[in-house]
Amino acid sequence: MEPSETVIYGIHAVEELLRERLEAIDHVYFDSGKRSVPIFNLMKTCRKERLAYNLVPATRLNQVAGSDNHQGVVAVCSVQPYCSPEELAKKIAGMESPLFVLAASIEDPGNLGALIRSCVAFGADALFLERKHTAPLSPAASKSSAGMVEHLTILRPKNLEGIIRDYAALGFAVIGAHAGKGVAPDTLNLAGPTIIILGGEHRGIPPYLEKLCSAFASIPIDPRAESLNVSAAGAVLLYEAGRQRRGYT
Hints:
Elements: E1 6-9, H1 11-20, E2 25-31, H2 37-48, E3 53-56, H3 58-65, E4 73-77, H4 85-92, E5 99-104, H5 109-121, E6 126-129, H6 139-144, E7 154-155, H7 160-169, E8 173-177, E9 194-199, H8 207-210, E10 215-217, H9 230-246
Parallel strand pairs: 2-3, 5-6, 5-9, 6-7, 8-9, 8-10
Antiparallel strand pairs: 1-4, 2-4
Helix pairs in contact: 1-2, 5-9
C-alpha cells in the first residue's frame, strides 16, 4: 500500500502545525475569496519560512480537504517526515565520502520518484529538495520511487544555500549537471565527498545554486536527443559516482 499525504485544515489547526511541525508541510492552500487577519498572518508565515503556497478557489480547497469546513486554509504534509540538517550531520558523522544529491526545481512527481529510486540504487546518502518549485513527497512521487522513498534520507531545509556553502567549506565537491557546459562525468572525481546538483525540467539549476558549483558535468549524448530527462541524467551521474566509489564496471 502506498503511503498517503496528511491533510490539515482550519485556521487553528494549521497555526499549530506551523508552530510544531513546520518541516512536515509540503504545500499550503488558501481560499482566494477569503480575507482575514488570521489568514494574512498564515500567508506571512509561509513567505517567511519559504513554504510553497497558493491562493485557489473555495471549490479547490473543498476538494483538497475533502470538506467545506476548512475556514479558508488547508495544509498538505509529506508522506514521510523530512530529515533535519542536524540529524543528517549525525548520520554522516564518521563517513569518509558522503554522497548527496540536490534536486532543484523538479516539478514532476514522476521524475522526483525516479530520482529517489536511483539515489537508493547507487548509494546516495541524502537528497536535498528546495522548499519551492519542487514536487512534494506525495503518493505519486512515492509510487514512482517503487517504495524507495522509505529508504532514503530526504531534507527540505529553509536555508538550502547556506547548508551547501557549509558543506563546500568542509571539502565537498559541488557538481552541477549542465548540458550546455562542463566535462564528461568520468573525468570528474566523484569518489570524495560530493554534492550533485540537478536542475528541473523548466528552470534548470537556479542561479543561487549554480554559483556554488565547483565544476559542471555534461553527459555526452547523441545530439539528436538534445538533452536527457532530469531523472535519467541523475541516474547516469549517480552510476558514475557509484562506479568510482565501488568499482562498478
